[in-house]
């Protein structure tokens, strides 16, 4: 997969939740632009291996690493292996996520905590572990993958809206704090994305409603990955702390 004119030669990236769907496409696109990529996954070992094979088949460098981003020790181990194998770390894409639909009165404490831990503890662990290496390189790029539900009320998803609103707050706070180190922190906020539940599974029924946006379709994973790639390029070093909505005009902010 081509890097579309953006050159990431010599850079090293970690993409969490990169075994399938949008994470896989982001990993492949960064590799196509020249970055060495760590394909993080939790349980989808075969799919992660396939992502690595596809990257290597296109001439890129990658390896898969299983780590639960909710576990700080596992994240530190992943970052340490990344630096050991590739010599540093420049880019972090926080894509790992848990999504579900559940009415308030059916939502269990376990599901609430799992959602918030993946969406908030995960990026916190990954960012805190990665930033020292970015500072050593003199710059860095952090891209958080948020969600439209964090910016507008959605029934049966209070756990997800809470988590994604937190991702927005994390992005803004760290953009201000890390700017003196030449580290950008931005958040891509997708609307519905046309994905599959599993590598060989059926289409995700929650993400294929063609009437969801005024454009009459869902986003393709490549459209999210294109923006992630742009945020990693040298032409995007002065933009930080932004919520970048990709939803076909479904959610619009003015002023």
Task: Describe the protein's architecture and organization.
With 255 residues, the protein is an alpha/beta fold. The protein has one domain: 3-Layer(aba) Sandwich (Rossmann fold), CATH 3.40.50.720. Helices cover 40% and strands 15% of the residues. The protein has 6 helices and 7 strands; from the N terminus they run βαβαβαβαβαβαβ. The chain has helices spanning 21-32, 45-57, 72-86, 109-137, 158-178, 221-232, and strands at residues 12-15, 36-41, 62-66, 91-94, 140-145, 183-190, 243-246. Strands 3-2-1-4-5-6-7 form a 7-stranded parallel sheet, sandwiched between helices. Helix 4 links the parallel strand 4 (91-94) and strand 5. Helix 1 (21-32) packs parallel to helix 2 and helix 1 (21-32) packs across helix 6. The protein is globular. Mean pLDDT is 91; it is low at 198-211.
Keywords:
255 residues, seven-stranded parallel sheet, Rossmann fold
Layout of strands and helices, then pairs:
Elements: E1 12-15, H1 21-32, E2 36-41, H2 45-57, E3 62-66, H3 72-86, E4 91-94, H4 109-137, E5 140-145, H5 158-178, E6 183-190, H6 221-232, E7 243-246
Parallel strand pairs: 1-2, 1-4, 2-3, 4-5, 5-6, 6-7
Write a short abstract of this structure:
Helices cover 40% and strands 15% of the residues. Helix 5 links the parallel strand 5 and strand 6.
Poorly predicted residue ranges: 198-211
Under CATH, the topology can be stated as Rossmann fold
CATH architecture: 3-Layer(aba) Sandwich
Helix content: 40-55%
Shape: globular
How far apart the termini lie comes to 37 Å
Class by alpha and beta content: alpha/beta
Instruction: Please report the number of helical segments.
Output: 6
* Main sheet record: 7 strands, parallel
Provide the gyration radius in Å: 17 Å
What is the N-to-C succession of helices and strands?
Answer: EHEHEHEHEHEHE
Mean pLDDT: 91
Total beta strand runs: 7
CATH class value: Alpha Beta
Number of separate domains:
1
Biggest sheet, spatial arrangement of strands: 3-2-1-4-5-6-7
The CATH homologous superfamily corresponds to NAD(P)-binding Rossmann-like Domain
Strand residue percentage: 5-15%
């Amino acid at each position: 997969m081509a890097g579309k004119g953006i050159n990431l030669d010599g850079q090293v990236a970690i993409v969490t939740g990169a075994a399938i769907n949008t994470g896989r496409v982001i990993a492949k696109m960064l590799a196509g632009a020249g970055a060495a990529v760590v394909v993080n996954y939790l349980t989808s070992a075969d799919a992660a291996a396939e992502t690595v094979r596809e990257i290597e088949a296109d001439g890129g460098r990658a390896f898969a690493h299983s780590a639960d981003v909710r576990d700080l020790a596992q994240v530190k181990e992943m970052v340490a292996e990344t630096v050991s194998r590739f010599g540093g770390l420049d880019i972090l894409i926080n894509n790992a996520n848990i999504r579900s639909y559940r009415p308030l009165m059916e939502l269990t404490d376990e599901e609430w905590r799992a959602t918030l831990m993946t969406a908030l503890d995960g990026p916190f662990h990954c960012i805190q572990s990665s930033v020292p290496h970015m500072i050593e390189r003199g710059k860095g790029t952090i891209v958080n993958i948020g969600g439209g539900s964090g910016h507008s009320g959605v029934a049966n998803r209070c756990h997800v809206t809470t988590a994604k609103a937190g991702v927005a707050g994390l992005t803004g706070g760290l953009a201000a704090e890390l700017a003196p180190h030449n580290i950008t922190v931005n958040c891509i906020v997708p609307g519905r994305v046309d994905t599959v539940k599993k590598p060989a599974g059926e289409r995700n029924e929650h993400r294929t409603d063609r009437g969801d946006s005024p454009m009459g379709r869902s986003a393709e994973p490549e459209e999210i990955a294109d923006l992630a790639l742009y945020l990693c390029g040298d032409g995007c070093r002065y933009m930080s702390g932004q919520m970048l909505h990709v939803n076909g005009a479904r959610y619009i902010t003015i002023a």
